[in-house]
Design brief:
The protein is an alpha+beta fold. It folds into two domains: about 110 residues, Roll (Ubiquitin-like (UB roll)), CATH 3.10.20; about 35 residues, no CATH class. About 25% of the residues lie in helices and about 25% in strands. The strands form three sheets. The protein has a five-stranded mixed β-sheet, with helices on both faces. It has a two-stranded antiparallel sheet with strand order 6-7. The protein has a two-stranded antiparallel ribbon with strand order 8-9. A hairpin with a 2-residue loop joins strand 8 and strand 9. The termini are far apart.
Length: about 180
């Protein structure tokens, strides 16, 4: 039976990292790609690897490797394989980060344990590139958090959609407006 993972060296390292934005501690384990292929990978199995006894729905999962400009949020079991096959096949190190569902993305903020977990990954990888996740600067909004269709303040950032107008300008709408609700 062929592996759903496209070709990559079996010695590719996979790090599984659980961060908490309120604590300086972290939980981290590593496997080779051969181990991941043998055992399979799902969001639930990531929690098992990290010895987390909670439901998948309480967490946000992100995948990152050297070929990626930002950590990608994994929304389903299938998204792990799809993201891996698109971006990570040729990288020596792949990291899956787990944070609480309401915590910010690793592309927007560092956890208190970030430096320690990164140092540990680099030590374990023995020279293989363990990339730093680039923190995206907050975009400059031409309309700030005002929905230009209603001229009302958008209180909940998760209901906000920002469009890039080019030249460093952005404009903000509510999701409801954009999907015509």
């Amino acid at each position: 039976m062929s592996s759903p993972f496209k070709t990559a060296p079996d010695e590719q390292l996979w790090f599984f990292l659980k961060e908490d934005m309120n604590l300086p501690t972290f939980v981290q384990h590593q496997y080779t790609l051969a181990d991941v292929r043998r055992n399979g990978i799902k969001l639930e199995s990531v929690l098992t690897i990290l010895n987390v006894k909670d439901k998948v729905q309480k967490f946000a999962f992100y995948l990152h490797s050297a070929s990626m400009a930002a950590a990608v949020r994994l929304l389903s079991d299938e998204s792990i394989l799809v993201t891996y096959n698109l971006y990570c096949q040729q990288d020596n190190v792949v990291t899956i980060l787990v944070r609480g569902i309401n915590e910010p993305s690793p592309t927007t903020s560092r956890s208190p344990s970030h430096q320690n977990s990164l140092r540990e990954r680099r030590k374990i990888s023995r020279g293989a590139l363990v990339p730093e996740i680039f923190i995206q600067p907050a975009p400059r909004h031409a309309s700030n958090t005002i929905d230009i269709s209603t001229m009302e303040e958008i209180e909940d950032e998760s209901k906000m959609v920002t469009l890039d107008l080019g030249n460093g300008d952005f404009i903000t709408f509510t999701k409801e407006y954009l999907i015509c609700k």
